[in-house]
Design goal:
By secondary structure, this protein is an alpha/beta fold. Helices cover about 35% and strands about 25% of the residues. The protein has three domains: about 80 residues, Alpha-Beta Plaits (2-Layer Sandwich); about 70 residues, 2-Layer Sandwich (VC0802-like); about 110 residues, HUPs (Rossmann fold), CATH 3.40.50. The radius of gyration is 23 Å and the shape is elongated.
Length: about 280
């Protein structure tokens, strides 16, 4: 089964000590989600990348697509980084995906010391592909190819992949403190999700008939409590450093900002209705 190469974004911009802490939080979150799903996994790290091997890589893809802090991930095939071995591995990898008449592009990234640059590696592999199957009438197209063959070289190992899957991005859960989120409608689900994406642990105050079950796919062991009239007291009683409301900019203008002893966040005020509906659809999918 393929290894999953996991990429993150904002974490890499932090200072070394903060980055290590956030990376650890991300790895712990991935491990907890797999344990909850009953899927054994092994996780390893290099600078800027996390690697996951599991007993069910397709189920792992579903988990990673809902894990905050992950920008993207790819099922990869491992290969040695020396040019001869790497070229042979790429040809074996590309054979089943390059159909007759297809256009292709070779995308390369490299870190470490090697006797080639990313550009010369791409050119060498592209030439090898053209020479390997002349009968397929393959064409190079760097703009909009039918198939992308990607090669990421990191020190002595290389990783080959042809697809990149999206994660939700943001920061790992639990890196930014605990917030009480108030869910009165589906908009509250969207505002809660936005706080999760910023790395907040959330405690959801929900009443009525709004179904918050879909949030659990994004937040394992999500806790939901009944709302109270005094939201600030409820937040403080549960160890929250702030609260988040589903109000739009129009709501804030009409009602006035909620004032109290804790910060109040309005995650949806910068979004229009179409963007909010699109976000809700994504969360509930």
């Amino acid at each position: 089964m393929p290894t999953l190469l996991i990429r993150y974004g904002e974490i890499g911009l932090k200072s070394p000590s903060v980055r290590r802490r956030f990376e650890g939080q991300l790895v712990d979150d991935i491990r907890r989600r797999h344990a909850k799903a009953g899927i054994p996994c092994v996780i390893s790290q290099t600078r800027g990348r996390v690697f996951l091997d599991s007993d069910d890589w397709r189920r792992s893809c579903e988990i990673l697509s809902r894990t905050f802090g992950i920008v993207s991930f790819s099922p990869v095939t491992r290969a040695p980084s020396d040019l001869e071995s790497l070229t042979k591995a790429v040809l074996e990898f590309a054979d089943p995906v390059l159909f007759g008449g297809a256009s292709f592009a070779v995308r390369t990234r490299r870190s470490g010391n090697h006797p080639y640059t990313s550009q010369t590696l791409a050119a060498s592999i592209g030439e090898a592909i053209l020479n390997a199957w002349p009968e397929r009438r393959l064409k190079v197209n760097l703009g909009e190819p039918d198939v992308e063959v990607s090669v990421e070289v990191r020190e002595r190992e290389a990783y080959l992949f042809s697809s990149t899957l999206a994660g939700p991005g943001g920061m790992p859960l639990g890196t930014q403190g605990r917030v009480l989120t108030v869910v009165e409608s589906e908009r509250g689900i969207a505002s809660s999700w936005m706080m999760m994406k910023r790395g907040c642990s959330v405690l959801v105050a929900a009443g009525g008939t709004t179904d918050t079950g879909q949030l659990e796919a994004w937040y394992p062991n999500l806790k939901i409590i009944p709302p109270e009239d005094d939201l600030f007291r409820l937040a403080e009683a549960n160890g929250c450093i702030g609260l988040a409301l589903e109000w739009s900019l129009e709501d804030v203008s009409a009602r006035g900002a909620l004032k109290g002893p804790l910060p109040v966040f309005y995650p949806l005020v910068g979004m229009n209705e179409e963007e909010i509906r699109g976000l809700i659809s994504r969360i509930l999918a």
